[in-house]
Specification:
Largest sheet: 8 strands, parallel
Radius of gyration: 18 Å
CATH class: Alpha Beta
Order of helices and strands: HEHEHHEHEHEHEHEHEHHH
Low-confidence stretches: none
Helix content: 40-55%
Strand content: 5-15%
Shape: globular
Number of strands: 8
Distance between the termini: 20 Å
Oligomer: single chain
Mean pLDDT: 96
Number of domains: 1
Bound molecules: 1,3-dihydroxyacetonephosphate
CATH topology: TIM Barrel
Length: 282
């Protein structure tokens, strides 16, 4: 595990005990990582930095991401707990690469496989990860995409999945979608509560962007302790940068351009941490 990082399992157990949820923010580059680390430290909130396979490739590989996060924690004297998580790892090999490089947790996403195959592959990842104290998340059902709801998780399937895989936390599909929501989409919190009671593992909500403030406040009461956020930060950053460029047509310094979205990202991180109740919990 990365020297300066904490186990996801520990962060989620603390959240469960403390009655709050921890945000997992997707990172894309050095600057975003710094903005999110600083905003979380300012608000004294525990933090999960998560990286998709695509973002790992974009940034230059697993080792680079681990070293970058470790070095930023050290250089910026970040003293809140930070976990580094692989988001939607699609194969055993990708999860293994993340674990070997020092990620503190991985998600194995076998959601497009039949349940028994999803169970078998998740178990392989769990067996390997647990040898190195790495936490594993997996998905049952299918989180929707592009405003289309995916196949919802069956409560009984979730129970079987957790018993047979030994996974540490579970992302059941609850009618949630990645990206923005239209007004018809509602998260099935009743199903979350049943799954949480039956499995007794912390639940994860994917597609946290666009979830209403009222729903955010209800997540913890229904067993959800990790909330994934990607699109929301992309949107506030892009809006701020667009406005900056529109009113500063002669700027070409990339540092000024990327930085023009810094405050927007920081404000959104603090707003979400507030809704999840994780402020002042680190
Ligand atoms: P959003 O882009 O909807 O916030 O979803 C993020 C996510 O679930 C990453 O796994």
């Amino acid at each position: 595990m990365g020297d300066n990082m904490e186990s996801l399992k520990m962060l989620l157990n603390n959240a469960k005990t403390g009655g709050y949820a921890v945000a997992a923010y997707n990172i894309n580059n050095l600057e975003w990582t710094r903005f999110i680390l600083e905003a979380s430290m300012d608000s004294r909130a525990p933090l999960i930095l998560e990286v998709s396979e695509g973002a790992v490739k974009y940034m230059g590989g697993f080792k680079l991401v681990v070293d970058m996060v470790n070095d930023l924690i050290e250089e910026l004297a970040i003293d809140i707990p930070v976990a580094l998580h692989l988001d939607h790892g699609r194969s055993f090999l990708v999860c293994k690469k993340a674990i070997d490089a020092g990620f503190t947790s991985v998600m194995f996403d076998g959601s497009d496989l039949p349940l028994s195959q999803n169970i078998a592959l998740t178990k392989e990842v769990v067996d390997y990860a647990h040898l190195q104290n790495v936490t594993v998340e997996a998905e049952v059902g299918q989180v929707g995409e592009n405003n289309k709801i995916g196949k919802r998780a069956e409560v009984g399937d979730c129970d079987r999945f957790v018993r047979e895989t030994g996974v540490d936390c579970l992302a059941p599909a609850l009618g949630n979608v990645h990206g923005l929501y239209n007004s018809n989409i509602q998260i099935d919190l009743k199903a979350a509560r049943e799954i949480s009671k039956l499995t007794n593992v912390p639940l994860v909500l994917h597609g946290g962007s666009g979830v209403s403030d009222e729903e955010f406040l209800e997540l913890v009461n229904n067993g959800i302790y990790k909330v994934n956020i990607n699109t929301a930060l992309q949107m506030v950053w892009a809006k701020a940068v667009r406005e900056y460029l529109d009113s500063n047509a002669d700027v070409y310094d990339p540092r000024k351009i990327i930085k023009s979205g810094e405050q927007a990202i920081k404000n959104e991180v603090i707003r979400i941490n507030n809704l999840l109740g994780s402020i002042n919990k680190a």
